[in-house]
Predict the structure.
Amino acid sequence: MELIRGIHNLRPQHHGCVATIGNFDGVHLGHQKILQQVREVAARLRQPATVMVFEPQPREFFAGDQAPPRLSRFREKVERLAEYGAERIVCLQFNNRLRQLTGEEFIQQVLVEGLGVRHLVVGDDFRFGCDRAGDFHLLEKMGPEKGFSVEHTHTFLMDEERVSSTRVRTTLASANLAGAARLLGRPYKIASRVVHGRKLGRTLGVPTANLLLGIRKPALNGVFCVLTRLHNGLLWPGVANIGLRPTVDGVLPALEVHLHGFEGDLYGKPLEVFFLAKLRNEMKFNGLDELKAGINQDIQQSLQFFRQAESSWQLERPWPNSSLDHLLATAPL
């Protein structure tokens, strides 16, 4: 897979592709169906399967802090797109210059001169260009004279409802982790590296691995039972808080994971945190003593959850089963 940042980095050897365009936030089953559609045409035309995405996402550009939370960070998105068959990912910076292009200019400058697209797969409600004036009908009209064909994506339904990033967010917000996994085709996770924090957890006798999430608000908030895949591939049970940490006046969203019975140095190591069941919402405690008591109660509830799920599991040992599906809850515990 090749990642190209900016249309100015497209070279003559990049000319020619079968492409699709979108946010692909979460790379859910609907997105995976689109990628399959692109791969099939790309194989027939002997062209690279290409995905165009934007940073920031258009709604983030226009709505700022009011934009919906992201389901995945950019790096995770790229990894999932590659996993499902994208051979080339082109990321364009969404800025005033790009948003001011007319529909015709977007087609000529981006699709024709930039990508040299041979075939385009987009939703029939796809809009682009200044004031969203460009649409599927404009692509159909200009495609033949510009040397490319266009087809609309196949809507993917589950339980007679369209699978979308919005639906995944709503499902996660209701703490239906099993439902979100069905829509995504995999359990929901967040991946990042462990960074040095304020060491408050260690002071309270509850050491945590701290993962920064960037400036975007996460799709989840609260305290969860989690399984964490360590850098060595082992799965380790734990309890995690994701949010702003109001008791200690947190500013940026963070993910703090306490691994039950784990001893070792994780600083700088990559972790994958799988969310299984919600224990409670994030709350502000009246001081550190009350915070410590709340954390210890969360730990006991989490331990009870894992022991009920797998009676053979022992504290200070990794999780004995690689399957996560039977652990996923449909509502808060």
Summary: The chain has two domains: 2-161, 164-327. The chain has ten helices and 14 strands.
